């Protein structure tokens, strides 16, 4: 097992380059199934989740070549046939479900064990399955497996009860070859949705409206191979913005898209952080007195739930009372107990965390309960007095490329220790 050890109190300086978005890359890898051809994905973040979904494709006979030096993946799905992917791999992460839409689109069916992932809430798959059923599939869930079959998919109007990112992606991928037109209403608007649609369109799909509440998909007979470079990771960008704020430092963050970061920029600016955009870079200066703020997580373009734990850590160091309300995942305050071990003064009231800023955090051994919680605890360790040890960091490796190396280049006293 490995852990990350941080000695707090260092000032950060210099610049950091942001990787491509994990939440874009995973559905794009899954979408390569649709081509029955060769797809090339550039600028791929070399993360554990990327390796897992690549191995899932290998388990159904795809030829997947990963070039770690060039950050490139070449996927040939011409030999895939209808078969069950490896259950042990599927159970490792929830994003495994993203192969459902492509499989039912190309092969008329799939069988998949229920997937795993971070334990941050129930995250039901009913919206995915309702979407497949609306397209004409027969869906059955029993004995820990979900199976769907369809002789032919027919376009339909599908209204999502909640703008689920995964359901929007899965239904969109299923509908690209459905006969007629499909309209997904109350669709997720995240930038990663548009990125996936851009990739699908480059393969020959006919999708308009991605990134809005209504996505229109006109079915095509087949898709071809293509190349694509995914968008930047807005959550990694936001994490480094908070790193500057919590350490009262000034850094430059390269490879960002300001449009995707607007809700994070707005809230950090409200707290008193100085942020200036220069093209594809941000200058972030947290060396000032910050103010307590209230935050409520919402689907995009609201404040992202994936930044909630990082900002909770920041606000625990800001004098005054802040309130963070989580509306997306019911279990996304598990990091609070770990932060309290470091001296944070946080009380949970239903779906809200009431945060009283403390003068200082102190180092402790803490556990990464999920991906973003792990990142938040590293940030707290940067600001804490003394040594912080973050364990169970396999969660962090699922979503951040060399986070300790990037922070070390910025001047942090941080290292990964293998035990």
The number of strands is 23
Task: Specify the biggest β-sheet.
Answer: 4 strands, mixed
Please name the CATH topology of the largest domain: UDP-n-acetylglucosamine1-carboxyvinyl-transferase, Chain
Mean pLDDT: 94
Secondary-structure-derived class: alpha+beta
Strand content: 15-25%
Key features?
single chain, peptidoglycan synthesis, pyruvate, UDP-n-acetylglucosamine1-carboxyvinyl-transferase, Chain, cell division, 14 helices, 2 domains, 419 residues, transferase
Summary of the model, kept short:
The protein has 419 residues and is of the alpha+beta class. It is built from 14 helices and 23 strands. Strand 15 and strand 16 form a beta hairpin.
Describe this structure in words.
With 419 residues, the chain is α+β, with helices and mostly antiparallel strands. The chain has 2 domains: 2-19 and 232-418, Enolpyruvate transferase domain (UDP-n-acetylglucosamine1-carboxyvinyl-transferase, Chain), CATH 3.65.10; 22-228, Alpha-beta prism (UDP-n-acetylglucosamine1-carboxyvinyl-transferase, Chain), CATH 3.65.10. It is built from 14 helices and 23 strands. The chain has helices spanning 22-31, 48-59, 87-90, 100-107, 126-134, 165-175, 191-202, 234-246, 262-270, 308-315, 335-341, 371-383, 394-397, 403-409, and strands at 2-7, 15-17, 38-41, 63-67, 72-76, 109-113, 138-142, 145-149, 157-159, 181-185, 206-208, 214-218, 227-228, 250-254, 274-278, 281-285, 294-296, 321-325, 345-349, 352-356, 365-367, 387-391, 413-418. The strands form 6 sheets. Strands 21-22-1-23 form a 4-stranded mixed β-sheet, with helices on one face. The radius of gyration is 21 Å and the shape is globular. Residues 117-123 have low confidence and may be disordered. The modification 2-(S-cysteinyl)pyruvic acid O-phosphothioketal is found at residue 118. Pfam families: EPSP_synthase (PF00275). Its EC number is 2.5.1.7.
């Amino acid at each position: 097992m490995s852990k990350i050890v941080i000695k707090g109190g260092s000032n950060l300086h210099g610049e950091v380059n942001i990787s491509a978005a994990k939440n874009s890359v995973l559905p794009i890898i899954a979408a390569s199934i649709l081509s029955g051809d060769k797809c090339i994905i550039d600028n791929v973040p070399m993360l554990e989740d990327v390796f897992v979904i690549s191995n899932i494709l290998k388990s159904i006979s795809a030829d997947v070549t990963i070039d770690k030096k060039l950050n490139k993946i070449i996927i040939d799905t011409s030999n895939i046939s209808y078969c069950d992917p490896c259950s042990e791999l599927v159970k490792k992460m929830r994003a495994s479900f993203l192969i459902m839409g492509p499989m039912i689109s190309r092969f008329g069916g799939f069988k998949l064990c229920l997937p795993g992932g971070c334990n941050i809430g129930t995250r039901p798959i009913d919206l995915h399955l309702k979407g497949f059923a609306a397209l004409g599939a027969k869906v059955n869930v029993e004995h820990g497996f979900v199976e769907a079959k369809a002789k032919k998919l027919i376009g339909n109007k599908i209204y999502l009860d909640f703008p689920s990112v995964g359901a929007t992606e899965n239904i969109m991928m299923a509908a690209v070859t459905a006969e007629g037109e499909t309209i997904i209403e109350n669709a997720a608007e995240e930038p990663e949705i548009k990125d996936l649609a851009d990739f699908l369109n480059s393969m020959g799909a006919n999708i308009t409206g991605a990134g809005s509440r209504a996505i229109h998909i006109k079915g095509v007979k087949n898709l071809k191979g293509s190349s694509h470079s995914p968008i930047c990771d807005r959550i990694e960008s936001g994490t480094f913005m908070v790193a500057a704020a919590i350490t009262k430092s000034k850094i430059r963050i390269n490879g960002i898209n300001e449009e995707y970061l607007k809700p994070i920029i707005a809230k950090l600016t409200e707290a008193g952080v100085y942020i200036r955009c220069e093209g594809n870079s941000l200058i972030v200066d947290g060396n000032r007195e910050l103010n307590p703020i209230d935050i409520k997580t919402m689907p995009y373009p609201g404040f992202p739930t994936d930044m909630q734990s990082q900002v909770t850590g920041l606000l625990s160091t800001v004098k005054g009372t802040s309130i963070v309300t989580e509306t997306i995942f019911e279990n996304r305050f598990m990091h609070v107990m770990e932060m309290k071990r470091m001296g944070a003064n946080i009380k949970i009231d239903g779906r809200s965390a009431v945060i009283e800023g403390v003068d200082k955090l102190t180092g402790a051994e803490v556990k990464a309960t999920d991906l973003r919680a792990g990142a938040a605890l590293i940030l707290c360790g940067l600001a804490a007095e003394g040594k912080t040890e973050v364990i169970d960091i396999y969660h962090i490796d699922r979503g951040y490329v060399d986070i300790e190396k990037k922070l070390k280049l910025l001047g942090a006293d941080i290292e990964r220790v293998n035990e």
